[in-house]
Specification:
alpha/beta, five-stranded parallel beta sheet
Amino acid sequence: SGTFVVKAPSPSSSVQPPPSPLPPMDAFKKGITFADWVPFDRPPRPTPLYYPVMADQALKNLAATGANWIMLIVTNGQETIVSTNITRNQYATASDQALRHMVDLAHSLGMRVMLRPQIRLSNDPTHSWIDIGAAFTSEEQWQAWFASYREFINYYAAFAQDAGVDILVIGDELSSTTHRENDWRRVIAGVRERFKGPITYSSIGGLPSAP
């Protein structure tokens, strides 16, 4: 596969307004999801994710609505629901530089940031990420997947700490895995070693519990 580079425009030389104050952490959250992604099974697009030409103005428009939080999305992938290797993708995973720019810009506009790393499937059109783990048949598969998951989420925990993210989502709608309590406690312990802010989990309602 080829590699392309699209340079971001140079920062404007005009005088910028002073940063807006951030809301207290316990203030009512007027939040909006701020997402830019390409599905792992789709062709790449010509510009990188969170490209400043478009993303910066979109974020400023959100701030103008009175929003004081955003949930910033970053996507990693695995091939199928029985795959045990979670990977980043040149086109479908936002770069750390782009994410850091969004965090900094949101903070300057008076919005706090919740970072939500998520997993999507690249080669399994009949299933959803919520089915990950549902077809595992051995303990070896579970342990291989959770080892990869810890590597994935620990990476973003360290990033979140360095970038000043306000809340980190440690899991996103992985309802076929949540019965694995001990494995999730290991995930949490690893995240807490790297990220000192509040953490949460993005659950999905209306689904039967895993056996």
